[in-house]
Write the structure tokens for this entry.
Amino acid sequence: MNIIEFRKTSKHFGPLKVLDEIDLTIATGEVVVLIGPSGSGKSTLLRCINGLEQITGGDLVMDGISVRAGKRQLRLIRQEAGMVFQQFNLFPQMTALENVAFGPRQVRGLSRAEARTLALGLLEKVGLAERAHHHPAQLSGGQQQRVAIARALAVQPKVMLFDEPTSALDPELKQEVLTVMRQLAQEGMTMVVVTHEIAFARQVGTRLIFMEHGKISVDGPPREVIDTPPSDRLKDFLQHV
Amino acid sequence: MQIDWSVIPSFLPQLAEGAAITIKITVIGLLGGLAIGTAGGLMRAFGGRVLNAVAFGYIELIRGTPIVVQVMFLYFAMPVLAGLRIDPMAAAILAITINAGAYIAEIVRGALLSISRGLVEAGLAIGLPHWKVLLHIVGPLAFRRLIPPLGNQFIVSLKDTSLFIVIGVGELTRTGQEIMAANFRAVEIWTAVAVIYLLLTGTMTVGLRIIEKRMRIL
């Protein structure tokens, strides 16, 4: 079943065309890894899926709802598409537990006790149960990002969107985040991941997309595409990351 | 004339009455100013083109004119212009309200815009409507950043009430002048008046410090 459909989707920032009539269909259970040089439109593509960027041409359908259908529908899309950011963006005034419990309570209508139980379970899952009552400032970057993953999962989305989730982390801290993501993929979560982690793409991804100038230039199975790059541009790119 | 500090207790009751009026003008005026300032700041930060322009016009008008002119306008010009006659006390409170409101609006706008866009996006990405992001995430964070500049404005407004001597409100400074006109004890009276102002602003500072500590400024 297709969960995300780009239909000749374009995105302009003023005169600049960042996405150029993208056609892309993502099915439930896929782990799609987006790579490409900076400015190629990969983050924008991701951010269009949950409407953080407004598309300017074509259509984009997520879980059967068009991102152009209106504010209320956009909120429904966002409940089904959890997002993890490069800069974590945890709410600094809340503890880890409060960060995770906040979404289910506010948008899924769970009671305080239900949200708390759910949040504790998710913190346990990302290995941070004993850090539940710490504020973000008291956590390492890797821990913050794992809380952020738990926060996104707490709304019980059908898809998880990752926007360079390890780019702001030290090499050692990257691994703990990638481990959680790997586990999530194994559980069958549909994921779209913008990253520079080629090893992760090769090992965990079911599909690799290479973007250039707002277009998809390569789309295929990660192993194949990485081991025998079909274009010189991709070959060159892979040598430099 | 010999300086004689022992005369101070004799006019303290009168000064206390003046101080009470100063406090009344400041407290009511600042409550009004906070309401207007919050609305104005929200309009400036998140309002559409029209709301933003309205708030901007108001802020520029008030910041661009002296408070003495504003209160004279309210008290002497409004009756002529609109047939609205208000007593000096009401004019004083209104002047603090509209004056502090303009400055507080800019403080509120600054605090709201200082909250990182990423936090707003994180809230929206969960599926929250914009007003809930404002209420639960941006609001509480902005409030913490608001307190230090707000404290500054509170102190300025309190001292500005002394300018209402021009419309004859019996606040602290005016009271001091009335006493002096009767006994010419300038040093004793103005020292006492200054000390009372210091006590009032000092109390405000301590109060704000406590709130600041409680909120653990981020």
